[in-house]
Amino acid sequence: MPFKLIDLPFAADALEPAISAETFSYHHGKHHQAYIDKTNAAIEGTELADKSLEEVIAAARGSNQGLFNNAAQSWNHGFFWHSLAPDSGAPSDELAAMIDKAFGSRDGLAKQLADRGAGHFASGWVWLAEKGGSLSIEETHDGDTLADSGFNPLLVIDLWEHAYYLDHQNKRPAYLDAVIGKLDWGFASDNLARGSVWTYPA
Ligand SMILES: [Fe+2]
Questions:
Q1: Could you read off the pLDDT of 137-172 as tens digits, one per residue?
Q2: How far away, in angstroms, is 93 Cα from ligand 1 center?
Q3: What distance in angstroms lies between residue 77's CA and the mean position of ligand 1's atoms?
Q4: What are the structural domains, with CATH classification, of the chain?
Q5: pTM greater than the 0.90 cutoff
Q6: DSSP sequence for the chain
């Protein structure tokens, strides 16, 4: 079964002015679509054609960099759309307690996410992740992913220029400040409660 471009879980203009509908028209409609199309083209007719996206990522890591990049970027963008919401809500009691323990407070977490995202060199992703009952902020470069990493990713922010250039030009810190206010704490809480890595919808 070929992989599909999943719909945004909100209206394309619902996150303005943090992220505009115009940005989503390119970022979701063109960039994410291209990663999906290239993944499907690479696995067509191979033994990976009937595997899950998570299985394709794990199989391609270290052995087929082109397929890995496109499959991981397909997954990362699906996870990113779900990491965002017009109404960010609140973390579960369990997640809130873990945030306080690891970062002091929600504000402490927000500051560390903003600092790590701003300091990340070139393209990549900054994640809130859980492993062994503790939270941490992780960074991956280019198309790399936490999907098959041993971490349980809770949230992610895209740090590629295509994520913010139309709305914030080169000011990645302004984008981070805006987008951190649109993180979906319900999604993060669900990921923590499930205790296993989110799966890309079939
Ligand atoms: Fe992106």
A1: 999 999 999 999 999 999 999 999 999 999 999 999
A2: 31
A3: 6
A4: 21-83 (1.10.287.990), 93-194 (3.55.40.20)
A5: yes
A6: -----PPPSS-TTTTTTTS-HHHHHHIIIIIIHHHHHHHHHHHTTSTTTTS-HHHHHHHHTTT-HHHHHHHHHHHHHHHHHHHB-SS-----HHHHHHHHHHHSSHHHHHHHHHHHHHHS-SSEEEEEEEETTEEEEEEEETT--STTSSSEEEEEEE-SGGGTHHHHTT-HHHHHHHHHTTB-HHHHHHHHHH-S------
